[in-house]
Amino acid sequence: MAASFIIFIPLIAFLLLLLFVSRSDANVKKGDFLKNYFLGDRALKGFVLAMTLVATYGSVSSFVSGPGLAWRYGLGWVVFAAPQIITGFFVLGGLGKKLSLVSRKIGAITIIDVVAERFKSSALGIVLSLALLFFFIAMMVGQFIGGAQLISQAADISYVAGLAIFGLVVVAYTTTGGFRAVAITDTICAILMLAGMGTLAFDIISSAGGMTLLMQKISASASAQEAQAFFSPNAAGALPWTLLFSAWILVGFATVALPQSAVRCMAYRQTSDLHLAMVVSTAVCGALMIGMTLLGFLARGVLPQDSLFGGNTDAMIPYLIAHHMNPWVAGVTLIAPIAATMSTVSSLLIAASSAVIKDLLLRRYRPMPDKEEEVSRYAKCCTLVIGLLVLILAIDPMDIIVWINMFAFGGLEIAFLCPLVGGLFWRRATVQGAWVSVISGLCVYAWACLMKPDLGGWHAVAPALAVSIFSFVLVSLFTKEEKNLDFFPE
After folding, report:
1. Which of 287, 283, 306 has its CA nearest to residue 295?
2. How many Cβ atoms are within 10 Å of 249's Cβ, its own excluded?
């Protein structure tokens, strides 16, 4: 009990720090509440932009589920995680300049604003807002479950108590601070994630007596056949090559369409900040995503049997932190996965709130309320309500978190890839093409997820995106183009 209490002390200090930062940055400029609360006044500097992008993308699955699956499958899951290296560079390099220029020109606050203005369709914006809310809530439920499990297992308290601590703190600092506070706390979280990964790596290697002995213990932990699969890039067929190719779509190239990442392209200060963020985010994202997954592979030499942590691979990292580290070091290290989880939840929460306030209510009921205080109250109440709803949904834990995350990733990519990326860069794209791409892609995705047909190892996102893109191009070519000088000046 004493050790559990010691582990809890650094965590409490971290949570109080987040609340303090959010309160100190809670005041926004008068007369421009929406731009400040939902977009940080478009004033993020390069380093903060990079870190908030990395922290938003890196989540509890990156620190818990990913390493846990690498513990089970071996190097194959490290290969599966490799496409994530390109995420920061691809999102900022692909969308950064164009999306920033367009959003400033049309006064867009959200990604939905950009799509709705590009195709001159409020109805399309509303449908995409609803899709965003659905998949964001699914992702946030997974993050809440992961955060609660981390706290409960490491501090030896009940799951519900861990959920209450995690959920109430993240909802409180997101509600009070808005986008800028989220960006600052994301930066703190990303730095702590790197520090935690380093501490965990040192503990795993030193516990085994060095890297050479660690690799020998990994080899000795399984039979010859199992060891061969563990060191195979496709886990001896357990991870089909088609699934690994799907990863380049799901957590690689298609991440350019994730609205929670794309909105960062609308929030930076100037071009030099964008260029710096591209370099920093690529380096940090690669180090975290590959590094943490590789640590899961190496942990097999320290924890050879899954019975040690109850057979649930999501519990492997929390068990390792709580039972293989000095309590003080464990408490500091625990902050890293908690930080990853909180940074993702806060970003999703503020984006979900913006979808309700800006893309549903204010788009449907114009004009905007006259009093800024009234808009502020609506926005903060909405953030609070969504956060509490997710907290309630997370009371009954679900499947392995990484699969929840991938399901939501796929849905968001299908819904936004053609309308956002295609709409920004293809002059010939039409509103009819956008509608058909969203509907056809999500229908195929829902069918594949629910019916689970044999796709030869491909993730459901692959056929769904193929149908979405094909229908987008085909219908756009056979419907009338509407010129939009805000996006394509002549």
Report:
1. 287
2. 19
- 141, 322, 468 from 465: Cα distances, Å: 25, 41, 5
Q: How many other CB atoms sit within 10 Å of the CB of residue 403?
A: 14
- Mean pLDDT score, 338-354: 74
- Which DSSP string do the residues of 254-277 spell out, in sequence order? GGGG-HHHHGGGGSBSSHHHHHHH
Q: What is the DSSP letter of 44?
A: B
Tell me how far apart the alpha carbons of residues 33 and 41 are, in angstroms, rounded to a whole number. Answer: 9
Residue range 167-217, pLDDT digits in tens: 787 777 666 655 566 667 667 777 877 888 888 888 888 888 888 888 888
Beta bridge partners of 44: 268
The per-residue pLDDT for range 60-90, each reduced to its tens digit, is: 677 777 888 888 888 888 888 888 888 888 8
Cα dist from 453 to 210, 403, 423, whole Å: 46, 17, 31
Q: What is the pTM of this model?
A: 0.83
Least confident of 43-57, 73-87, 118-132: 43-57
Query: In this structure, which CATH number among 1.20.1730.10, 3.90.70.10, 1.10.150.120, 3.40.50.12780 belongs to the domain 2-401?
Result: 1.20.1730.10
Residue range 321-331: mean pLDDT, rounded: 78
Task: Give the residue extent of every domain in the chain.
Answer: 2-401
**At residue 30, what are phi and psi to the nearest 5 degrees?**
-70, 150
- Give the chain's mean pLDDT: 80
**Whole-angstrom Cα distance, residue 183 to residue 325?**
31
* Average pLDDT of the segment spanning 297-311: 82
Question: How many DSSP H helices and E strands does the chain contain?
Answer: 23, 0
- For residue 114, which of 249, 277, 265, 250 has the smallest C-alpha distance? 265
Token pair listed for 469: 């893109």
Instruction: Tell me the C-alpha distance between 303 and 217, whole Å.
Output: 10
Q: Which residues contact 307 (CB under 8 A, 6 or more apart)?
A: none
CB atoms within 10 A of CB 41: 16
